[in-house]
Amino acid sequence: RFDALLDFRAISPRAMAIAYEEVGDYRRERRDVHGAVDAFARMVVLDSTNARRWTVLANAEAIAGNGPAARIAYEKAIAWGSVDPETHTNLAIVLFAGGDVDAALGRIRTAVALDTLDATAVYTYGQMLFEGKRDMQGALPWFERALHLDPRNHHARSYADRCREALGVASPPPPGEPAQ
Fold first, then answer.
1. Long-range Cβ contact pairs of 133-137 (< 8 A, separation 24 or more)
2. Which pLDDT tens digit goes with each residue over 46-70?
3. What is the three-class DSSP state of 115?
4. 6 and 22 in contact (C-beta within 8 Å)?
5. Taking CA atoms, which of 69, 86, 103, 175 is between 20 and 30 Å from 60?
6. Which helix (H) or strand (E) holds 114?
7. What pTM was estimated for this model as a whole?
8. Other CB atoms closer than 10 Å to residue 173's CB: what's the count?
């Protein structure tokens, strides 16, 4: 639909990249993930030094289930200067899913350093220690911190309880209940 609206030969590459981003957004909203990836891939060809655009492509690749392509796009976003903690967190998740636990832990540490109040990054760090390294002692403080940042994070609460059980440490009472 959008491709037929304009003669792209008459516009700048940056303007074309903007148009392809609009096409990608349109396709993504209509749940055409592969169409969105195609449009976003065209977008980064035209504006390849824009970290935000690489992140948009990476997110679409991840949603499409293409971990290796998502990894490359997230790495390009970071190489072009992205300091968005979410970009680093998402790369860590892709690395972890691909089995590269140590690289994932390094990347999630960067995400937490960029935003110490990012409950998702804090929780993800704990989860990677728990699942990837079976480090209950190391994971527990991260889950507790995630709960401090977001008391409604039931996953962090469950993981913290599992860590405490494995370590033989008593769980605190639920919020609002007196300690025994």
1. 133/101, 133/105, 136/162, 136/163, 136/166, 136/167, 137/163, 137/167
2. 999 999 999 999 999 999 999 999 9
3. coil
4. no
5. 103
6. helix 101-114
7. 0.86
8. 10
Phi-psi region of 99 (alpha: psi -120 to 50; beta: other; left: phi over 0): left
Q: What are the tokens at 72?
A: 């490359």
Tokens standing for 146?
């995630």
Lowest average pLDDT, out of 13-27, 49-63, 75-89, goes to 13-27
**What angle in degrees, to the nearest 10, is found between the helix axes of 51-63 and 85-97?**
40
Cβ-based neighbours of 175, under 8 Å, separated by 6 or more: 151
Contact 131, 163 (CB under 8 A): no
Residue 42 identity: R
Q: Is 5 exposed, middle or buried (0-12, 13-18, 19+ CB in 10 A)?
A: exposed
Q: Supply 95's token pair.
A: 């690395």
DSSP state of 83: -
- Taking the C-alpha atoms of residue 42 and residue 161, their distance in angstroms, rounded to an integer, is 46
Quote the CA–CA distance of 13 and 33 in Å, as a whole number.
Answer: 24
At residue 11, what are phi and psi to the nearest 5 degrees?
Answer: -120, 160
Structure tokens at 45: 């060809």
Tokens (6 digits) for 55:
């992140």
Q: Which two tokens stand for residue 73?
A: 């796009």
